[in-house]
Amino acid sequence: MIHLQYVPTTVLYLLHQLLHLGDGVRIAVADLGPGLSDEDQRRIFERFYRADSSRVRIDGEGSGLGLSIVDAVMKAHGGDVSVASELGKGSTFTLFFPHSADALTE
Q1: What residues does each domain of the chain span?
Q2: Cβ distance 28 to 17 under 8 Å?
Q3: What does the DSSP assignment read for 31-55?
Q4: With respect to CATH, is domain 4-105 assigned 3.40.50.2300?
Q5: What was the pLDDT predicted at 21?
Q6: What is the mean pLDDT of residues 58-76?
Q7: Which pTM does this prediction carry?
Q8: Hey, what long-range contacts does 59-67 have (CB within 8 A, 24 or more apart)?
C-alpha cells in the first residue's frame, strides 16, 4: 500500500489473509519491502505524512495523501485500516469492511 515508486521492483505483494467474520470481512495485504519504523507506523495515516522525506518528487507525486484517504474512507463506512511492520521485513496492512445493517436484514 506504500506508493509503488518507493518499493524495489523485487518486492512481492501477497493477499495474506481474507477472513469472513460475523460482523464483516478482514483483508490483510503483506509486502516484503523495507518496512516502517515504529514512528512511521504511528503517523502513516496522517494527511501529508511521508515516511521518508527524501522521497519527495519534483513532479508532485508522493503527496502523503494516499493512506490518509484510505483511512478516511474506511472510517466513513464503519471500518478501519491498520499497519504492522518491522524494518527490513516488510509491512502488513489490514482492512476491515463491516457488513452493513441493511445487508444483514435483506
Answers
A1: 4-105
A2: yes
A3: E-SS---HHHHHHTTSTT--S-GGG
A4: no
A5: 78
A6: 81
A7: 0.72
A8: 61/3, 61/5, 62/3, 62/5, 62/6, 66/1, 66/3, 67/1
